[in-house]
Amino acid sequence: MKWYRCLLFSVGLSIAVFGAQAADFVIQDIQVEGLQRISAGTVFNYLPVQVGSTVSEKDYPEIIRALFKTGFFSDVNLERKGNVLVVTVVERPAISEIKIVGNKDISTDDLKKALTGVGLAEGRVFDRSLLERMEQELLQQYYSRGRYGVRIKSEVQPLERNRVAITLDIAEGETASISRINIVGNKAFSNKELLKQLQSSTTGWFSFFTKDDQYSKQKLAADLESLRSFYLDRGYLKFNVESTQVSITPDKKDVYITINITEGEPYTIEDVQLTGQYGVVPEQELRDLITIKPGETFSRAKMTEIAKKMSERLGEEGYSFANINTVPQLDDAKKKVALTFVVDPGKRAYVRRINFQGNTKTQDEVLRREVRQMEGSWVSSKDLARSKTRLQRLDYLESVNVETPAVPGTNDQVDVNYTVAERASGSVMFGVGYGQESGLLLNVSLSQNNFLGTGNQFGIAFNNSSVGQNYNITFNNPYYTLDGVSLGFRLYYRDIDSSELNTANYVQNVFGGQVNFGFPLNEFDTLRLSPGYEHIWIDTTTETPSEIIDYLGENGNSYDEFKLNGSWAHDTRDRTIFPTSGGLSQIAAEIALPGSTAEFYKLDYRGIVYFPLSSWLTWSVGGEVGYGEGYGGTDGLPFFENFFAGGLRSVRGYKANTLGPRYSNNDPSGGAFKTVANTQLILPVPFIEKAENVRLAAFFDIGNVFPTIDEFDAGELRYSVGVSGLWVSPFGPLVLSVGVPLNEKSGDEAENFQFSFGIPFN
Questions:
Q1: Model confidence at 95, in pLDDT bands (50, 70, 90)?
Q2: What is the mean pLDDT of the chain?
Q3: What would the pLDDT profile of 254-267 be if each residue is shown by its tens digit?
Q4: CATH at 686
Q5: In this model, does residue 15 exceed pLDDT 50?
Q6: Of 91, 120, 153, which residue is a domain's last?
Q7: In this structure, is residue 762 part of a structural domain?
Q8: What pLDDT, on the 0 to 100 scale, is given for residue 2?
Q9: Per the domain annotation, does 114 fall within a domain?
Q10: What is the pTM of this model?
């Protein structure tokens, strides 16, 4: 019985001791042990208790959890020594270095950015669970690129001072390509036609660049939706993708895709109705937008387009939150569908405030004057679009984005927020250029298209080339008045050796000036008037054609010209640099006023239209017609005012200014009548993701010059085809052209390769 009594005594004593330890106590001090890199202050910040707090052992789990949540520690223990709380920790190691080897398809920088995103970076605390998670995410990244044979091995090497070095050894393997795509169940459309709707494709000539033969789950999902849209746009309302199977060969190199579909039968439109509220838009206007008619095959694309146009029309009147629902009622027996367009305009929204962001140099008022959407008026989608276009056309803005968030707490107000990115609007340039037309060009220029953030243009330029010298001083205020009347001036001097321009051998010296006025007629039309004065004198050489010597002998070699230039332009382009839609039409007239040494006039029409064929393809058609004639005491157009053709700016493939009539010594003379036209297919530039400053085009040119309009002969027009490239570089425009004349005749001067660099190009 003695052992039993001893046992009871021991248990009782243990309980008493434990109870004493478990009792509440007031913390008089906190000690932290085991720290190497982390400061005690950091631990104190995360502790849920402090000196003076009352705790017991039942509070320990909460304290331990708080420290574990920091991610700094792999182990935490608590101990009471009297009224002192002792915290013992084991720190997680810090990442000293991350090495990535074997990667080619994904760059090291991109991989390290991904690692940093999940918390794995040099200097941070190492967490093995994050590393394992990252390995899985990297695998998915490689799978999406078609590399199903990828292997990723991670190695963690312990270092001194509680640090680790991480090495990711990546064996990317070969890219798996789609070997076959099978579509099962199609009867109405052939496999070939359906496969054209898919982004995914078997390996072809351009797959190396397009990557269309690489399988990804996301791309397949998009392809299935494309198939669905294809059938729904052709009336197959019961179309369904029954299943898809994707199989990969054991060597991870080939992918086979099978898509099982049920087509159903096509439905036709039985009836079309319009109902709902129309706001201030006349009902007939909305009905006119409904282009789908009874008897036609159902098309989801047409329905979507009609709803979009209705929404845009309501948006022009301030109904920015208009909702157009299309309700189809199917008659499965007759394979017919009745459509009802339900219009809910919602409340008319008004603009509370217009804000600009990103304009660090440009004054707000300079941007605001281009905006056609006004504060306090209802928001108009048409005015917003026009405002964005006008801002995009400013030379000193690189990009423009617009958002119309609703004002919090209201259901009929929005703010209009424009976010702009400015480009360098001014430059001081000392440069060298070269062009086949002008030779070596040395230029010094000071230009500012946004002078002091006012939107005014100011420039001083000096150009020296084999052609001659050119000095210019220009200034223009595009908003001289609040109505948008512009005012500017230009002073210039030119010393030109015409023989270097592939024309007759003589030297022309010109100095003059002009005042420029611009009058906006409406959003798209501008009238410009430019009165000015020129003094011209001509020097001949031993090689000057006799026709020019005779002309100067009769009329003199010095001319004082009082000129009036006028033009009308209709401009609907979406931007001035590399437009993709809209067009430009311009009629210009120049007259040497009575009292001038030589009295003449010149008329010129230029036009170009851009047709967007897709998001990446644009077709353009343009042309120019010029005509000049003398009047009063001047017989015909003076020779130094003639039109010329050939070269980069007209009919490519022929040497600059060499087309048309010639003098008795075979020098090109130009003529009083010019006609040029071209069409271009503007193509995407391969290997360049962002091609805002690069353009590649396939062209067809036609044109020539004639002595007078009466001597025009269509049989004398010249044709050429080729490809051209234009790069607006930081150092000036680079223009390249490879053209092939199609009907070169005896005496023509062909020039297949043409280029210029650092020379202004329009």
A1: confident
A2: 85
A3: 889 999 999 999 99
A4: 2.40.160.50
A5: no
A6: 91
A7: no
A8: 41
A9: yes
A10: 0.62
Instruction: Name the pLDDT band for 690 (thresholds 50, 70, 90).
Output: low
- The span from the CA of 232 to the CA of 225, in Å, is 10
Confidence of residue 758 (pLDDT cuts 50, 70, 90): low
The CA distance from 124 to 71, in Å, is 10
DSSP state for residue 140 in the 8-state scheme: H
Task: Give the pLDDT of residue 437.
Answer: 47
What's the pLDDT tens digit per position in 106-150? 888 888 887 777 777 787 788 777 778 878 878 877 877 778 888
Token pair listed for 150: 């990828």
Q: In Å, how far from its chain's centre is CA 350?
A: 30
Q: Which residues pair with 697 in a beta bridge?
A: 682, 724
117 by Cβ neighbours in 10 Å (0-12 / 13-18 / 19+) ranks as exposed
Count of the separate structural domains present in the chain: 6
Specify the length of the chain in residues: 762
- Helix residue ranges per DSSP H, 369-498: 381-392
> Are 743 and 616 in a shared domain?
yes
Give the separation between CA 696 and CA 683, rounded to whole angstroms: 6
Distance CA 217, CA 341 (A): 35
Express each pLDDT in 206-241 by its tens digit. 666 666 677 777 888 899 999 999 999 999 999 999
What is the SS3 assignment for 16? Answer: helix
- Residue 594's Cβ-count burial label (10 Å; 0-12, 13-18, 19+) is exposed
Q: Which of 215, 237, 262 represents a domain boundary (last residue)?
A: 262
Residues 600, 711 within the same domain: yes
The residue type found at 561 is: E
Give the structural domain span for 375: 350-422
Token look-up 């008897």 returns 295
**Residue 336 belongs to domain with CATH number:** 3.10.20.310
Query: Residue 709 and residue 760: Cα distance in Å, rounded?
Result: 30
Contact 418, 356 (CB under 8 A): yes
CB atoms within 10 A of CB 153: 12
Give the torsion sign (CA, 484, 487, 493, 496): positive
Half-sphere exposure (Cβ direction) of 257: Cα atoms closer than 13 Å: 22
Which residues lie closer than 8 Å to 28 by C-beta, 6 or more apart?
51, 82, 83, 84
Residues whose CB falls within 8 Å of the CB of residue 51, separated by 6 or more in sequence, listed in order: 27, 28, 29, 30
Most distant CA atoms of the chain, gap in Å: 151
Q: How far apart are CA 414 and CA 405, in angstroms?
A: 6
360 and 315 share one domain: no
Contact 471, 446 (CB under 8 A): no
Find out whether 37 and 94 touch, Cβ atoms under 8 Å.
yes
Q: Mapped to the 3 state alphabet, what secondary structure does 308-325 carry?
A: HHHHHHHHHCCCCCCEEE
Nearest-angstrom CA–CA distance, 593 and 583? 32
The secondary structure of 564-610 as a DSSP string is EEEEEEEE--S-SSS--SEEEEEEEEEEE-TTSSS-EEEEEEEEEEE
The verdict on 215 and 233 lying in the same domain is yes
User: pLDDT digits over 408-436, tens only?
Assistant: 988 889 999 999 988 765 444 444 444 44
Residue 672 has pLDDT above 50, yes or no: yes
